[in-house]
Specification:
single chain; alpha+beta; 3 helices; 7 strands; 32% helix; globular
Length: 136
């Protein structure tokens, strides 16, 4: 059976701005606190958190969708890459807030819990904190 992580978060910025931040090296590094290598074209390499995670951009549909191959250093060499899909849409109740829907497929069982928790710990919480600090 395929593993699937599904998460959604609403952040205090327009969906288009969140999309651009995710694909921009400087902005991505600013909200995660770590250097990142990322590009906005299919085939661009990706790594973050001191290369603890890596992969490649598979597809970008501006300004709404990012699809990546993705793996952590905890994946075994025999584990295939997982696939990460991020969808960026305006929050229905307030277009000044953006919603990110995440679907992360084929994370190996031995890393599933850490990856699931890692999205909240390493992305959603620091991203929200970063955005809220800029509002002040």
């Amino acid at each position: 059976m395929r593993s699937i992580i599904q998460q959604s978060v609403v952040l205090p910025a327009r969906a288009e701005a969140l999309f651009e931040m995710y694909l921009d090296r400087a902005a991505h590094a600013a909200f995660t606190g770590y250097p990142v290598e990322i590009g906005s074209d299919a085939g661009a390499p990706f790594h973050a958190f001191n290369k603890q995670i890596s992969g490649q951009i598979l597809a970008v549909v501006r300004p709404r969708l990012v699809v990546q191959s993705w793996r952590s250093v905890k994946f075994h060499s025999s584990d295939p890459d997982s696939t990460l899909i991020l969808s960026f849409t305006p929050e229905l109740s307030n277009a000044e807030r953006g919603r990110i829907d995440l679907v992360h497929v084929d994370v190996p069982e031995h890393d599933f819990h850490d990856v699931t928790d890692g999205w909240q710990k390493h992305y959603w919480t620091p991203w929200r904190t970063y955005l809220e600090s800029r509002e002040r």
